[in-house]
Amino acid sequence: MIVPLDEAVRELVHDGDTVALEGFTHLIPVAAGHEIIRQGLRDLTLVRMTPDIVYDQLIGAGCARKLVFSWGGNPGVGSLHRFRDAVTHGWPVPLEIEEHSHAGMANRYVAGASGLPFAILRGYAGTDLIGNNPNIRTITCPFSGQELAAVPAINPDVTVVHAQRADRDGNVQLWGITGVQKEAALAAERVLVTVEEVVDALDPVPGQVVLPARVLDRVSVAAGGAAPSYAHGYYERDNEAYRAWDAIGRDRGAFTAWLAELTATAPPPAGPAAPEPAGRGL
Amino acid sequence: MTTVAWTSDEIMTVTASRSLCDGMSCFVGIGLPSTAANLARRTHAPGLWMIYESGTLGTVPDRLPLSIGDGSLADAADTVVPVPEVFNYWLQAGRIDVGFLGAAQLDRYANINTTVIGDYADPRVRLPGAGGAPEIAASCREVVVVMRHSRRAFVERVDFVTSVGHGSGPGDRERLGLRGAGPVRVITDLGVLEPDPRTRELVLTGVHPGVAADEVRAATGWDLAVAEGLEVTPEPTDAELSVLRSLTGAA
């Protein structure tokens, strides 16, 4: 159950898979994304509500054939330039896109987790998203006659999320802004969770989400694995790294150099980072 | 003796903050809207109930967040809910008074584009996309748009309707089943535009001090009508400016 990250990615993620690495600003599974790049996976359909810089990196590295998303930007900074380059110039490979609103994507995960074929919502009416995406349709309520939007369930082949901690049996605990991770995990065929640390017992935390080990496939320790996003109670968001990404992402040469450095580096060690992470706990 | 000087961005943010009343619930986007909402809460609207789409309800951040999901927002929130709940239970169910949005392009009916410049299939510029905006524009009781004024941004027709303002005119929102009132005000670095109650077309109803109506018309990509009794925005107060500058670090 608890295995090194490179082994977990090798076992669970395959070329051509639909992969959701979720995280809404907080707990973004960056280390797992980097391992996908290192292993040179190709033709992935990447799914995420808020693709940010780790998706920019996956796209720039040529891992993705398609992106399913609702907001693709560098939060608080600007655009994702690798994403933009792939969409407008097909570099390094063409990228197909399927684009929704946040409400639509959130409900698609809820339907996927619920074992339903589609979700309904009040949304999209009057927008050009509808005409450009065959996965947004309308449905008439059989009770009231109201016309509502319908979107298909998302059921990723693999969902990857990052969490604060797991116990030795692989039960996972996360807290703070928990986004859509529970739904994304329960919607998936296979689930990989990276954690800051493994502990003997998961002491309850207010607002926590617990993912029981029985719905997960592999847990890997990746201390600092959400950076430059953050892990509530462990480390803060590195806003400067998000700003600094802008210049790297803008330039194919700078990005290529960044990529060469990443792929030349071994994955992070499975043990806890030393010294103890500052601000651990609550 | 001091002369209070301010920038066009500062008066835009101050004017936007004055759109928010004490006790309102406000769905806050990042950037200018977030700055304006946090300014309002620290000045005339201490009871403003701010929601960020990451799920932080009733948050009172001690500093301006860079993203909609900074840890400081979660620490300072009444409660943090999962993302599907924000959109379904809070926004879709009609519990939010005002949505604050930005735009890359806006047209005469206040329709909003944050998706692409140019053709969707072969865009000149690819923008981040919809995020929460389509449903914020649909379901909040009212919407306030904050953006800088230019002919590139204020266009006859948006290249892509990401979020519906007033569609193509009167009756469109009702026909589409959009339950909120839509954009009631567009606040820029030059002035204030509001929809004509009859035609729903945006009309210039206010200018900031020192700005002429013709200047605003020249920065607008359609033949912008000017309201009778055009108002001049009251200047930012010392208190507003000092709070704003403490938030943005421009003190």
Automatic annotation (TrEMBL), chain A:
One Pfam family for this entry, by name?
CoA_trans
Q: GO molecular-function annotation terms?
A: transferase activity
Q: Does the keyword Transferase apply?
A: yes
What SMART domains does this protein's entry cite?
Answer: CoA_trans
Q: InterPro entries, alphabetically?
A: CoA_trans_fam_I (IPR004165), NagB/RpiA_transferase-like (IPR037171)
Q: Which family does this protein fall into?
A: Belongs to the 3-oxoacid CoA-transferase subunit B family.
Supply the PANTHER family for this chain: ACETATE COA-TRANSFERASE YDIF, CHOLESTEROL RING-CLEAVING HYDROLASE IPDB SUBUNIT
Protein's name in the database: CoA transferase subunit A
Q: Which organism is it from?
A: Streptomonospora nanhaiensis
From TrEMBL, chain B:
Identify the Pfam families for this entry: CoA_trans (PF01144)
InterPro entries, alphabetically?
Answer: CoA_trans_fam_I (IPR004165), NagB/RpiA_transferase-like (IPR037171)
Q: Which PANTHER family match?
A: ACETATE COA-TRANSFERASE YDIF, CHOLESTEROL RING-CLEAVING HYDROLASE IPDB SUBUNIT
Family from the record: Belongs to the 3-oxoacid CoA-transferase subunit B family.
Protein's name in the database: CoA-transferase subunit beta
Q: Which organism is it from?
A: Streptomonospora nanhaiensis
